[in-house]
Each structure stands twice: as structure tokens, then as C-alpha cells.
Amino acid sequence: MDTLKIVLAPDPFLREQCEPCEIGDPTLKPLANKMTNTMYANHGCGLAAPQVGVKKRIIVVDCDDPENNPNPIVLVNPEIIALDGSPVKEEEGCLSCPGISVPVTRQPFARVRYYDLDGNECTIEGEDLLGRCLQHEIDHLNGKTLFESCNALDRIRAIHEYKQALARGAKPGEVE
Ligand SMILES: [Zn+2]
Fold this sequence. Notes:
Layout: H1 28-41, E1 46-48, E2 58-61, E3 73-84, E4 88-92, E5 102-106, E6 109-115, E7 121-127, H2 129-141, H3 146-149, H4 152-167
Antiparallel strand pairs: 1-2, 2-3, 3-6, 4-5, 6-7
């Protein structure tokens, strides 16, 4: 299976703004395939292009039951058009920050407009895990990692824990 290498924080590449995809670009399908394989191989429920070294606005998510019933959704140029609900603070992991989880406060509901790989305009609505995952992956497209999404106090602890995780050789998909 064709997988890609995951870019790990604090690589400055993860802090860059990604560029919009050209709708109908034929290179997007093979890229999306490789991203999907990479997400599953590392037991993630979402992956954004910058995490595999590509500065384009494309993400893949699968929050249902990826191990038993894979159903990947590829979102090209995704854009949050609505957030709703009282903010909830919950631990998030990230394939680019192996070995740690970080509490991030987000609204539970997200509505996202995007293009599919055939260039059709689509909308997806997600609540709880999917709502959170969509927001997390779109953050990546804007150069935001877990360390930028959490509050200042949690960031200090997260950076400390992350240094320890890297020192013991934590791999993507591992959450302590
Ligand atoms: Zn992430």
C-alpha cells in the first residue's frame, strides 16, 4: 500500500498557510488515495495534506468505524460555513504530534462546504467527533497545530509532554 511520510511538529512546514486546489486537478485523486492509505496505516480519523508535506487545501476524514468499515471522505478546499453549540473541551490527538493528547475547546457542530474529487460542490455536517475532526483538519490548512489550538496553560504542558514523547521515540498514531 502506498503511504506517505508524516511531517511531525514542530516542523515549520506545519505552520504555513496552504494554497487552494485547482478544481479538477488530476493529481488530486492519487494524492487523496495516498493520504487515505496513510491515515488508515497510522490509525488516524483525519489527515490534512500539509501533514504529508503538500501545501494544498485538501483533507480526508473517517470518523465512523475506520477499522471495520472504512468510509473515507475527501474534502477539497473545505471551508467552515457554520459552527454551533456550546464549546466543549476535549482531548485531541494528531498524527503530527505522536504520543500526546491535548485538550482543545471547540463548538461541537460544524457545517463545511467543499468540493469532492470530481469537482462537485458538497456540504457536510458533523457533530461531536466528526465536527471536531473537521475543525482540526481545517486548522492544519491554516497552519495551526494542536499547540496553537489549545490554551496557553495547556500548551506549556503539551510542549513538555511532547518533548518526552519524542525522546522515547513515540510514533504517529500513538497517544499516551
Ligand atoms: Zn492533526
